[in-house]
Amino acid sequence: KLYRIAVYGGDGIGADVTREALRLLNAVAQRHAFQLVLTELDWGIDHYRRTGVVVPENFLEILRPHDAILLGAVGWPAELPDHATLAPLVRIRQAFDQYACVRPAWLLPGVPCVLTGKSAGDIDLVVIRENSEGEYVDQGGWLHRGTDREVAIQTAVHSRRGVARILRYAFELARKRKQKLTMATKSNAQRYAYVLWDNLLDEIAPEYPDVASERQHCDALLMNLVRWPERFDVIVASNLFGDLLTDLAGQLAGGLGLAPSTNTNPERNFPSMFEPVHGSAPDIAGKGIANPTAAILSAAMMLEHLGEVAAARMIEQSIASTLAAGHRTRDLGGTLSTIEFTDRVLEHL
Ligand code: NAI
Ligand code: MG
């Protein structure tokens, strides 16, 4: 089998951690007899310095024929405002209608969870965030702008089609995992938007009799996630609630250095995008100390998406055993460099 991967390492530590993820990908490709054809894209702040633009004008056409996009991180605020460097990411998500943002939070052995005192085995959940509409549709406006009667109106849009497809995505995932789904709602205070979410959960749940589903008001859900993370399997939420829940869940599982993510659309034949949750980390960029785990686990999610499940598991297990053996980068209290840590992971394959 042959897969075409677009590799957009990007800025700061993005390029460094992506390079390490590629070392793992090449190693498992050999062992599992598939081939990766990489298109390495030199986009980002360096491209901007050379050409005046972060990505070429036809960047979406360049990405489209690939089976997946592996992204590092973008952003270099000292030189360009974030909206300029991050705009291509937003356009990728929209053009390829990547409506599901998938963020696993898996507490690995050897990683302390300061917030909950939990240990490995207790936290293994996935947050699914609706990525295409909801509270972030950018609709609204001002009344009496600049006066003391100023009013800001920010509208959320929740469509039956948009909510139903993210709920079905979450049910499908729960079915493959621990058969439990929790939906974030707030229908006690928002009597249109989340009543639609509640109704659709009631409508769709009977299609998945093997999955136990429930809803929790998002404020209580955030609290319960800290108190009882072991009770959760798949959590599904609107764009705004998902934004909050994914950050908290990521921290529960050890923080930014470890958190992978997927942006995907299972129905359409567009490339999905796999990326660490973290950004370009200008404060540690160029020092060779970034934790490559989030990028490596994102590459494993990509392999699973492509159908190379055994290879994906192999990467995940080698990350788990490397951390369990006490090998750590500085963000987790260790001393290893980015490259040294990846060397240990390759040895544990
Ligand atoms: P950040 O995620 O880059 O860094 C936050 C903190 O976490 C920093 O102290 C950093 O050193 C640390 N950190 C992050 N990843 C790490 C890793 N793998 N290993 C060790 N430490 C790590 O967020 P920040 O500083 O707010 O943003 C920096 C730039 O990245 C901005 O331009 C921002 O817009 C952009 N950004 C891009 C994202 C993307 O490409 N999807 C996501 C988040 C931010
Ligand atoms: Mg966020």
Structure description:
This protein has 349 residues and is α/β, with parallel strands linked by helices. The chain folds into two domains: 1-99 and 259-349, 3-Layer(aba) Sandwich (Isopropylmalate Dehydrogenase); 112-252, Isopropylmalate Dehydrogenase, CATH 3.40.718.10. The chain is built from eleven helices and twelve strands. The chain has helices spanning 13-32, 45-51, 59-63, 82-95, 160-176, 193-204, 218-227, 239-252, 293-306, 309-324, 338-348; strands spanning 2-10, 35-41, 68-73, 100-106, 124-130, 134-143, 151-157, 180-185, 212-217, 234-237, 260-264, 272-276. The protein has a ten-stranded mixed β-sheet with strand order 2-1-3-12-11-4-5-10-8-9, with helices on both faces. Strands 6-7 form a two-stranded antiparallel ribbon. A hairpin with a 7-residue loop joins strand 6 and strand 7. Helix 1 packs across helix 10 and helix 5 (160-176) crosses helix 6 (193-204). It is globular. The two termini are 21 Å apart. The mean pLDDT is 96. Bound molecules: 1,4-dihydronicotinamide adenine dinucleotide and magnesium ion. Residues 13, 17, 73-75, 77, 82, 86, 89, 256-257, 275, 278-284, 290-291, 294, 331 line the site of 1,4-dihydronicotinamide adenine dinucleotide. This is Tartrate decarboxylase. It comes from Pirellula staleyi (strain ATCC 27377 / DSM 6068 / ICPB 4128). Its EC number is 4.1.1.73. Its cofactor is Mn(2+); Mg(2+). It is an enzyme of class 4 (lyase).
